[in-house]
């Protein structure tokens, strides 16, 4: 059975000015339920992640400042909104949802987190609406618990996974792959194990050609026993921040390609949803829901 991490707190603890892009966290599961693609049995609500597990990835002083709401104002501005207890609670539940998803992926081949993809959070900083890096925390959890020896992180959000790259810069067991807009946030990039910068207004064909040239070879090279996939839909032509020009069909084909490689190679995959900032919320929700539908068609 496909298992999907979702908690109402994912959507609600944000300032009013940031509510619109966060509506998708409620609307994605609601739409999937409405269409009969999933049932309530597919959805689980994660508990908060343990502090010990956070500290396998994030600097202790940084975490304590988050936890105690004492992060300096300059660092809060880098994150993009004022720090609150509810926001911290949201982040630690997202992180546990991704860890739980790893266990479900071992059982079922794949699992999802409706939120997550908080890839701008580095070991000792938050940035771009990200405070704790859910997939990095989960990857270190798998390594610490000896559940995986070689991990591939496939980050196809339009923004570089700079925090993820920094966290695993000196960790040979985790290979970081980021395919992102060359002229987009973050403007100071970190170095992933493989970065593919994309030109503005790149469309389906050029994008897909680069992905097909890179990912199968990476899987052969890295030989991962677990894959994390960040499936951002801010690559769409309708996205206000993305600067790329993929169609919804192109985005769907991207997801089908990635998931088919995982399935064909029998590699468990955990999927976090990442960014999406199209003008119309229906475009964001439809593109994200297509990722779930691709997984269900392939795995179940």
What string gives the helices and strands in order?
EHHEHHHHEHEHEEHEHEH
CATH class identity: Alpha Beta
Query: Could you tell me the radius of gyration in angstroms?
Result: 17 Å
| Terminal CA distance | 7 Å
For the largest sheet, list the strands in their spatial order.
Answer: 2-1-3-8-7-4-5-6
CATH fold category name: Arginase, Chain A
Low-confidence stretches: none
Residue share in helices?
A: 40-55%
CATH architecture: 3-Layer(aba) Sandwich
Structural class: alpha/beta
Q: Say which CATH homologous superfamily is assigned.
A: Histone deacetylase domain
Domain unit count:
1
Number of strands: 8
Let me know the average pLDDT.
95
* Main pleated-sheet profile: 8 strands, parallel
The number of helical elements comes to 11
Oligomer: single chain
Shape: globular
Relative strand content: 5-15%
């Amino acid at each position: 059975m496909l298992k999907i991490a979702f908690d109402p707190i994912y959507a609600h603890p944000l300032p009013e000015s940031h509510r619109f892009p966060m509506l998708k966290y409620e609307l994605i599961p609601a739409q999937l339920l409405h269409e009969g693609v999933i049932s309530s049995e597919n959805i689980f609500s994660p508990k908060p992640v343990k502090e010990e597990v956070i500290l396998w990835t994030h600097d202790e002083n940084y975490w304590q400042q988050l936890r105690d709401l004492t992060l300096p104002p300059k660092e809060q501005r880098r994150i993009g909104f004022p720090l609150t207890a509810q926001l911290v609670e949201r982040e630690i539940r997202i992180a546990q949802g991704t860890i739980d998803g790893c266990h479900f992926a071992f059982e079922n081949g794949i699992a999802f987190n409706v939120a997550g993809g908080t890839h701008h959070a580095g070991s000792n900083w938050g940035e771009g609406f990200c405070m704790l890096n859910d997939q990095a925390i989960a990857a270190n959890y798998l390594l610490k618990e000896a559940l995986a020896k070689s991990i591939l992180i496939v980050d196809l959000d339009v923004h570089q996974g700079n925090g993820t790259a920094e966290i695993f810069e000196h960790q040979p067991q985790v290979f970081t792959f980021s395919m992102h807009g060359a002229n987009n946030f973050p403007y100071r990039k970190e170095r992933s194990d493989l970065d593919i910068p994309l030109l503005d207004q790149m469309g389906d064909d050029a994008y897909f050609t680069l992905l097909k040239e890179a990912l199968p070879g990476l899987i052969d090279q890295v030989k991962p026993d677990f894959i994390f996939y960040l499936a951002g839909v801010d690559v769409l032509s309708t996205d206000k921040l993305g600067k790329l020009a993929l169609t919804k069909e192109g985005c769907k084909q991207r997801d089908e390609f990635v998931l088919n490689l995982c399935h064909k190679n029998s590699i468990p995959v955990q999927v976090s949803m990442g960014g999406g900032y199209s003008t119309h919320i229906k475009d964001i929700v439809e593109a994200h829901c297509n990722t779930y539908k691709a997984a269900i068609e392939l795995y179940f």
